[in-house]
């Protein structure tokens, strides 16, 4: 199973200057619950943006074209296909970014695990591909209001490939 997990603004934005646009504690909690014990695949810039390096209790895979790249606590492969070939058929794989890796994984993904943040950021330089309703079926939706820990309302939306 290949799942893409991402937080998207209303305009499709996902990042600015290699940083997440939103810090929603429940989104982080959901991310941790879904990915812990599984495999995560990310690009080099996403790995470099992680404050403490490789995420614990997960198999971390980084994609980089650099021949001698070293990412402590993570395996490194030169392409998404090469990385996926190293995964078992029964392994749950989560694609966690960035934009280029999302684009490459989009046609291969079985599920999309979206957090839709009800905001349009003033600045963004990275966007998620459009979700075509002909290809994706909404499986589950859970809406949450803004509160003392969450500046914006947000919705968890799970899609499965049609």
List keywords for this structure.
162 residues; 11 strands; alpha/beta
Question: Any overview of this molecule?
Answer:
Helices cover 19% and strands 35% of the residues. By secondary structure, the protein is an alpha/beta fold. The chain has one domain: 3-Layer(aba) Sandwich (Dihydrofolate Reductase, subunit A), CATH 3.40.430.10. The strands form 2 sheets. It has an 8-stranded mixed sheet, sandwiched between helices. It has a 3-stranded antiparallel sheet with strand order 3-2-9, with no helix packed on it. A hairpin with a 2-residue loop joins β2 and β3 (19-20). It is globular. The two termini are 14 Å apart.
Strand content: 35-45%
Approximately how much helix is present in the residues? 10-25%
Q: What is the average of the pLDDT values? A: 96
The CATH topology is: Dihydrofolate Reductase, subunit A
Report the end-to-end length measured between terminal Cα atoms: 14 Å
Number of separate strands? 11
Summed up:
This protein has a single domain (2-161), classed as Dihydrofolate Reductase, subunit A. By secondary structure, the protein is an alpha/beta fold.
Describe the protein's topology.
Layout: E1 2-9, E2 13-16, E3 19-20, H1 25-35, E4 39-43, H2 44-49, E5 59-63, E6 74-77, H3 80-85, E7 93-95, H4 99-105, E8 111-117, E9 126-127, E10 136-144, E11 154-161
Parallel strand pairs: 1-7, 1-8, 4-5, 4-7, 5-6
Antiparallel strand pairs: 2-3, 2-9, 8-11, 10-11
């Amino acid at each position: 199973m290949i799942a893409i997990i991402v937080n998207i603004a209303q305009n499709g934005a996902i990042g600015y200057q290699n940083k997440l646009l939103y810090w929603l504690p429940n989104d982080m909690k959901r991310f941790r619950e879904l990915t812990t014990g599984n495999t995560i695949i990310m690009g080099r810039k996403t790995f470099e943006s992680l404050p403490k390096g490789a995420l614990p209790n997960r198999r971390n895979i980084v994609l980089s074209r650099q021949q001698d790249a070293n990412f402590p606590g993570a395996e490194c492969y030169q392409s998404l296909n090469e990385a996926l070939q190293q995964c078992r058929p029964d392994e749950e794989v989560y694609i966690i970014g960035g934009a280029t890796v999302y684009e490459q994984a989009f046609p291969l993904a079985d599920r999309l695990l979206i957090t839709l943040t009800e905001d349009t950021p003033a600045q963004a330089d990275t966007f998620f591909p459009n979700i075509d309703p002909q290809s994706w079926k909404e499986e589950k939706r859970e809406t949450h209001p803004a509160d003392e820990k969450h500046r914006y309302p947000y919705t968890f939306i799970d899609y499965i490939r049609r």
